[in-house]
């Protein structure tokens, strides 16, 4: 994810994204290791690691293509369940958004260490993903 795509994706989530149960908000002073907050009606706020791409969503396996953590703290927050991944496909009109939880690890996904942490696993984790847009 390039900085330009990330900036465009954040702007979209903070200003244009609409959902009856979910809302994104920016980080506060002192927040580290994640990109945004996700407020879900009736639940505690969740930290969000934004993983955006300029590509269009075509099939479920696209969610896990080039899904990479660049910092140890990002990986730790996701593994522990303190954060979720917001996987945003900016090339789709309107953009397609999926929330990925650490429940993917309960059904076979794992992290492999390369020069960064890469999520690997089977193609379909429907029970751990919620499509919001």
Structure commentary:
- This is Protein NO VEIN C-terminal domain-containing protein.
- The model has no long low-confidence stretch (mean pLDDT 90).
- The chain has one domain (3-131).
- The longest helix has 13 residues, at 3-15.
- The strands form two sheets. The chain has a six-stranded mixed sheet with strand order 1-2-3-5-6-9.
- The protein starts with a helix and ends with a strand.
- It has helices at 3-15, 72-80; strands spanning 22-25, 36-40, 46-53, 68-69, 83-89, 96-100, 110-113, 117-120, 129-131.
- The protein has 133 residues and is of the alpha+beta class.
Please tally the helical runs, counting DSSP H or I stretches of 4 or more residues: 2
Please tell me how large the radius of gyration is.
14 Å
Spans of 5+ residues with little confidence (pLDDT < 50)? none
Number of domain modules:
1
The description of the largest β-sheet is: 6 strands, mixed
Strand content: 25-35%
Record the strand order, biggest sheet.
1-2-3-5-6-9
Q: What is the CA-CA span between the terminal residues?
A: 20 Å
